[in-house]
Design goal:
By secondary structure, this protein is of the alpha/beta class. The protein is about 25% helix and about 30% strand. Strands 2-1-3-4-14-13-12-9 form an eight-stranded mixed beta sheet. Strands 6-5-7-11 form a four-stranded mixed beta sheet, with helices on one face. The mean pLDDT is about 95.
Length: about 220
């Protein structure tokens, strides 16, 4: 595989075209595939996703991609999960019953919390631009996916469930909604998740994709 080439996992569920266009806009060649051998040879791997957690995980199992994704991640290859793809990096989700995830970052996917400001449910799906803010763990953004980004930078979100890593040390950035901290970027070594869509977040998002390639 070419070093500056991204393999995008195609499992029939996801915003694949927009992700592909995002990388191509920054001059990065992409391979969209469900071929296990190609995935296992990737230098940079992207797991996109939209829709229901259970359906997405079942699609990965049907295509026998789960073991390949875990294998590549454990080999130290940079892996980026986007939106639902980020949530699937965790252990499990309680969306429509408990479904096991990839188990690459300890944690689970839960319903949106009640907003602290007015004690009413946060609007779901949450479709909005939100500013990224550093997590309470104070993990440095330097040399990370958010290198050269400012806490005032806003990115585009659309999601109905929240990814909750067990450790704050796996949360790189949050966004604030109705007084609640919602994880926006999670990380564990080479494994990264963005709850937002970098490919739909303008110049800020494209810079984030560039940072992923540099990892």
């Amino acid at each position: 595989m070419i070093k500056n080439e991204v393999v995008i996992i195609d499992y029939g569920i996801g915003n694949i075209l927009s992700v592909q266009q995002g990388f191509e806009e920054i001059g990065i060649h992409t391979i969209v595939t469900s071929n296990v051998k190609i995935i296992e040879q990737a230098n940079h791997l992207v797991l996109p996703g939209v829709g229901a957690f259970e359906k997405a995980m079942q699609a990965l199992h049907n295509l026998k991609l789960v073991n390949a994704i875990v294998k590549v991640a454990k080999q130290g290859v940079p892996l980026l999960g986007i939106c639902l793809g980020m949530q699937m990096l965790l252990d499990e989700s309680d969306e429509f019953g408990v479904t096991q995830g990839l188990g690459l970052i300890p944690g689970r996917v839960e319903k949106f919390p009640i907003g602290k400001n007015d004690h009413s449910p946060i609007k779901v799906p949450q479709i909005n631009w939100h500013e990224l803010v550093p997590s309470i763990s104070k993990i440095s953004w330097k040399n990370s996916l958010l290198k050269n980004q400012k806490p005032s930078d806003a990115v585009y979100f659309i999601h109905s469930f929240v990814a909750r890593p067990l450790s704050n040390n796996h949360i790189l950035a949050n966004y604030i909604c109705s007084g609640e901290c919602i994880p926006a970027v999670i990380v564990r070594d080479n494994i990264i998740g963005c709850q937002f869509h970098p490919e739909k977040s303008g110049k800020v998002g494209l810079n984030i994709l560039k940072n992923f390639i540099a990892l």
